[in-house]
Structures are given as structure tokens and as C-alpha cells.
């Protein structure tokens, strides 16, 4: 008959635990026990030739609960990693592994500004050349960069936006000078040559500001450089962004779309995008779309991308005509 784990006490319970742990782990435990305890446990081990599975599981669970319920957060971080790798491979190899791990991590430039208040950052950058401000914003996460951008004066906003779009690379020396000047009270890290700007990063930033701010910046930018403004607009909204459009806007968009374009476009779409279309159609329209998709086989990727582009153009037109609203997270997108 199986002996319940709760019925085991004292040395017998310890003996059961040692059997459950296996010889290698048990040997390390025994090495730390006093001799008289070892003698008692040895006797119990010889009396317990086998350990039933349910008793083993109960013993291990009880031990786990007893040990870890007394602990808070377990230690981690570089100190723990170094101790672990030193134990496993020796101090020299541990230092080498830790060093390789750190070197493999991409450096996040200006990350010390990532959680800073946008107003404080704006004050920190006050008086800096627009190129310097553009370099900083190009390195930040788009949402944070957008919050800082809207704090700038309108004329400066446009100039900084233009420079973000035009600045495509920077060198370690340039980054070192800019970061050192800004981090005097904080910190910074220098990295290799990095892609930091261009029309796409500027579009990501503008996607996070309010619609009126976006229009003002793009309008002024177009007056100075129409070609650059058009390039930025091409990145302002992409087909995959349809996944975040609300139901009312989707229903309005679908009314202006060609069913064949939708059938082509959805061939490489994500499930979220497909759901936005099918979920905002009548049952009959959805069935017709599925039938159209089943009939259009062997479609070239070029045709798919062209169809997606036509759909994006419809969305942009409807937004420009104020037929739909696509939230960009800015204050001027809040409905009152």
C-alpha cells in the first residue's frame, strides 16, 4: 500500500526526499548535514527500498512550497549570471560569456530620454540646432518623439521634421558629440554607424501626433520640399494599419472599395486585417468576397501589393475629406 506523504515524518521524510532528488543532488545535501543526522537518514533509506510516484510528487511539492514560500523575489541580473557561469565553467569562461552577451546587445541611443517628460526634454533641447534635435528624435521611440515634437514651436517643428526625413546616417563621432552635450546630467552610449532618419522614421513619428499637427507639419514641409513631403505621406499609413481602424470607419471604407481589390489585397493580409474586413460586412457581402478569393488563384505578389496600395489611397482620401477619423494618439484626435 502506498504511504501518504503526510504520514512521513522526521528522518523518514528526509530519506524519501533524497530518493526523489536523485543521487547527485542528494549527495550535495548529505554533505551539509551533521553526522548523527546522516546516520539516522541512512537507516531510513535502507528501510525504504522504493518510493511510490504519488509520494514522490507530494514530497517534492511540499519541499518546493516550503522552500519558496519563505523567499521573496529570486536574485537575478548580471551578478547571478556571473555566479552561475563561474560555477558551471570557471571564472575565466564566465567573464568571457558575460562580455560576449553585453557586446551582442544593440545600443539604444538617447535611451535616457525614453521615459523623460516631453516638456522637460523640450527644455533640455532648447537652444540646440534643429539638426541636433532631429538627430535626438530620430533615435527615440516614435511615440516619445511625437510627444516631444508637439512641444516645439510650429516653425521649429517643421524644420526638425524636415531634417529627420533628410538625415539617413550618422557617424560614431557625431553621435558622441551630440550625446555628450545632452547627457552631461544623465548618461549615454556611443555606437557604430546607424540608420537614424529618413522619410519612414518621420512618418512613424507623425503617425503618433494629432491630425491637425500632422497636417500643419506636412503642409509647411510641402511648401519647402514637395517631393520630400510626398515621400513621407507614402509611409504615413500602410495596409497593415487597417487592423486598428474602428468599425464605423471600416464600414465607410468598404463602401468605396472594389471587391476584386479586397480579394487580391487579403491574400497576404494578417488575420487581424482580414477580421476588420469580414467583421464589417454583411453576411452576403462576406460570402461574395470569399467566393471571389477562391476564384482568384495564382495571383502575382505585384498585383496584391497594387491592390493594397489602391485601398490605402481610398483610406487616405476619405480621411482627407473628413469622412473617417483614424486615431493617431494625439490630443487633437480626442472627441468632445
Globular, elongated, flat, extended or rod-shaped: what is the shape? flat
Percent helix range: 55-70%
Provide the low-confidence segments as ranges. 187-195, 329-336
Order of helices and strands: HHHHHHHHHHEHEHHHHHHHH
Strand content: under 5%
Describe this structure in words.
The protein has 336 residues and is mainly alpha-helical. The protein is flat and about 90 Å long. It folds into four domains: 5-68, no CATH class; 75-105, no CATH class; 111-235, Annexin V, domain 1 (Orthogonal Bundle); 240-333, Annexin V, domain 1 (Orthogonal Bundle), CATH 1.10.220. The longest helix is centred in the last third of the chain and has 20 residues, at 301-320. The model is unreliable at 187-195 and 329-336 (pLDDT under 50). The chain has helices at 10-21, 23-30, 35-47, 53-68, 77-89, 91-104, 118-125, 130-139, 142-149, 154-166, 172-182, 199-206, 211-224, 226-236, 247-255, 259-265, 271-278, 283-295, 301-320, and strands at 169-170, 194-195. The chain contains 19 helices and two strands. Strands 1-2 form a two-stranded antiparallel ribbon.
